[in-house]
Amino acid sequence: MARWRWLLAAALVAPAISSVATVQAEVATAQAEEENVNVRPVSIDEIPAPARDTILSQVGAGTLGEVLEVTGLREEPVYVGRINQGKRKGTVWVDAAGNLLAIHRVV
């Protein structure tokens, strides 16, 4: 349950790219309808190559922390990577095809 709270908090952090509103709406809808949203930690090596490549491209000079697989929001799983760049932290949301869904950077 703690991971779900972290995921919801991450979805509500701004600034982010325009598709964040879509992801936020999906998280809020899933919560309101009490859908079966599952969040589980995974290894970066376990996720599809396009998603892995997109997440790693966003890490830059930072380090990749936890990687989560979120199912139940969309037909396909969504992958969330936590990035640490010194004191700056952020999350990257991608789909299995490697499409960047959202970036959250905390300055």
Summed up, what is this model?
The protein has 107 residues and is α+β, with helices and mostly antiparallel strands. Helices cover 33% and strands 35% of the residues.
Number of helices: 3
> Main β-sheet: number of strands, strand sense, barrel status?
5 strands, antiparallel
* H-E string: HHEHEEEE
Q: Mind telling me which CATH architecture this is?
A: Roll
Structural class: alpha+beta
Tell me the count of domains: 1
Unreliable spans: 12-20
What is the third-level CATH name, the topology? Nuclear Transport Factor 2, Chain: A
Describe this structure in words.
- Strands 1-2-3-4-5 form a 5-stranded antiparallel β-sheet.
- It is globular.
- It has one domain (2-106): Nuclear Transport Factor 2, Chain: A.
- Strand 4 and strand 5 form a beta hairpin.
- It is built from 3 helices and 5 strands; from the N terminus they run H-H-E-H-E-E-E-E.
- The longest helix is centred in the N-terminal third of the chain and has 13 residues, at 20-32.
- Helices cover 33% and strands 35% of the residues.
- The N and C termini lie far apart (26 Å).
- It has helices at residues 2-12, 20-32, 49-59, and strands spanning 38-42, 63-71, 78-85, 88-95, 100-106.
- By secondary structure, it is of the alpha+beta class.
Supply database-style keywords:
alpha+beta, 3 helices, single chain, 107 residues, 33% helix, Nuclear Transport Factor 2, Chain: A
